[in-house]
Amino acid sequence: MTDARHLLLVGGGHAHLGLLHGLALRPEPRLRVTLLAAETAPLYSGRLPALLAGLYPPEACRIDLRRLAAAAGARLLPGRAVSLDAGMRRLLCADGAILSYDLLSLDIGSVARPPPPGGGEVLPVRPIGSLPARLGAALAGLPPGPARLAVIGGGAAGIELAFALRRRLRRAGPAPEVLLLPGAALLPEAGGQARRLVARALAARGIAVIAGAEVIASGFDGLLLADGRRIPASLALLATGAAAPAWLGGSGLALDPQGFVAVDAALRSVSHPEVFAAGDIAAVLPHPRPKAGVFAVRQGAPLLANLRRVARGAAPRPFHPQRRALALIGTYDGVAIALRGRLAIEGRWLWWLKHWLDGRWIARFRALPAGLPRATG
Ligand SMILES: Cc1cc2nc3c(=O)[nH]c(=O)nc-3n(C[C@H](O)[C@H](O)[C@H](O)COP(=O)(O)OP(=O)(O)OC[C@H]3O[C@@H](n4cnc5c(N)ncnc54)[C@H](O)[C@@H]3O)c2cc1C
Fold it and tell me: How high is the pLDDT of residue 221?
């Protein structure tokens, strides 16, 4: 164990969850593992809309990192990385601690894109861990009377949040209005059939879609679109996609033009061979993919396999991700819409499939033996 290399995992993202699960099933004696995680019970994003809709209690949507790290024989350090000197192999935490490593793996997700300027109440959906509390407080602070809530963003996450908000607010009292502001168009990367099906599902549930222009400002009475339209809204949720956290900017790591960590097909930094990255934070240069949890989940096993190989002095192997991912959008009234590439279908059975798939992912981590925390200095 004394010759083991120190692997520092930063972030309890989807790929690291899979990696730790793999270590719990088959320990790696050549690695001494530390997990630095800003949240010790991260929220599973696939269940976030259902949690907001009031369908599940929070504990059914979170993964217990203490238990997972213990099962994997890893040391868990609750904390947030704020700066990295990749040349010196040193990571600075928000509490002032400095961590060194032989191997570093980053799976810290992404951050919200900047909200439109102005004084209106616009809630970014990221960080998703705090969204249930932030949304609860914002809704509680609305003046009495009919509310008009907007979701900004026309990707799968924004659409699903609009359905979930409608469900939550109908349960809470008289139905308020929910609007979706997708910018230029709904689901810009999907085909016409998918767009039509989603538009019909939204319309059937009374969710108005106001497309054709970006939101450029927010005020106390609503939102301003680039074409001059003013949209009254009491509160807006911002689901416009993923941005890179700024703190990696000064790390010395090679980044892509958007600031994500540039890695090769083996998930290894193109500038620092002892650094790996997966999930939203990684820009896999040979295989660009959308920022989605599905891709992060699939990277967990090859990431672990490559770290095992590097620990025994072998070269990491390239990983070829799937081209397309299945997105299941719940409408929160017993139906889900499945999108894959340009195809789309909807049905009640898809809602049960979504419920089953999400539940299976969470249950996987609960089924592990509690394990004994290893002393890792
Ligand atoms: C509303 C919504 C719904 C979504 N639904 C789906 C879906 O159904 N299917 C799908 O495929 N994708 C979905 N996504 C996208 C998905 O959430 C992301 O692509 C996915 O979470 C990325 O996973 P990750 O492994 O990169 O990191 P994440 O799952 O984001 O986890 C990163 C972790 O790292 C921690 N962390 C962050 N910074 C630091 C730091 N500096 N130091 C230490 N720890 C840190 C965070 O606290 C977090 O726990 C959804 C997104 C949103 C916003």
Answer: 85
| Amino acid 172: pLDDT | 65
Whole-number pLDDT of residue 220: 83
The residue out of 186, 206, 238 marking a domain boundary is 238
Q: Are residues 200 and 252 in the same domain?
A: no
**Segment 288-340, tens digit of pLDDT:** 998 999 999 999 999 999 999 999 999 999 999 998 888 999 999 999 999 98
pTM greater than 0.90: yes
Residue to mutate (ligand 1; options 108, 354, 360; most atoms within 8 A of CB): 108
Are 145 and 185 found together in one domain?
yes
In this prediction, residue 377 carries a pLDDT of 26
Here the CATH number for the domain that contains residue 268 is 3.50.50.60
Examine residue 365 and state whether it is found in any structural domain, yes or no: no
Are 254 and 316 found together in one domain? yes
Range of the domain at 154: 112-238
Which whole-number Å values give the CA distances from 271 to 8, 59, 233, 281, in the listed order?
A: 18, 40, 46, 15
What is residue 342's predicted lDDT score, i.e. its pLDDT?
A: 80
19 lines ligand 1 (CB under 6 A): no
| CB 161 near ligand 1, within 6 Å | yes
Residue 205 located in a structural domain: yes
CA 93 → CA 102, 135, 182, 254, 341, distances in Å? 17, 28, 37, 21, 40
Q: Is the CB of 14 under 6 A from ligand 1?
A: yes
The response to whether residue 294 sits with its C-beta less than 6 Å from ligand 1 reads: yes
Q: What integer pLDDT is reported at residue 343 of this predicted model? A: 86
Helix segments in the chain, DSSP class H: 14-25, 48-53, 65-72, 131-140, 156-172, 192-204, 293-311, 348-366
Q: How many folded domains does the chain comprise? A: 2
- One-letter amino acid of 367: A
Residue ranges in the chain whose pLDDT is less than 50: 372-377
Residue 255 within a domain: yes
Do 105 and 116 fall within a single domain?
no
- Which helix (H) or strand (E) element contains residue 235? strand 235-238
Ligand 1 contacts CB of residue 18 (under 6 A):
no
pLDDT at 181: 97
